[in-house]
Specification:
Length: 66
C-alpha cells in the first residue's frame, strides 16, 4: 500500500478494512474505503448472557429426559 494511503488509513482510524484506489501520475487516488466492522465492545457480556440462557435450556432438557 502506498505511504500516502497508510497515512489516510490512520486519519480514518482503520485498523483493518479495504481501500479501492488507483495510481495516477505516481499518486494514489482513494476511490472507496470500507472499514471491516469490529466486534461489539460488550461481546463478553453478550456471550455470557447467551451461555446462561443455554445452560438453563440444557438443564431443562436433562430433567425432561429422566
Amino acid at each position: 500500500m502506498p505511504d500516502e494511503l497508510r497515512e489516510r488509513r490512520r486519519e480514518l482510524g482503520f485498523d483493518y478494512g479495504k481501500f479501492d484506489f488507483v495510481m495516477h501520475e505516481g499518486r494514489a487516488i482513494l476511490l472507496d474505503a470500507n472499514k471491516t466492522p469490529g466486534r461489539p465492545q460488550n461481546l463478553v457480556k453478550m456471550f455470557a448472557a447467551g451461555a446462561s440462557d443455554l445452560t438453563h435450556g440444557f438443564e431443562g432438557l436433562v430433567h425432561r429426559a429422566k
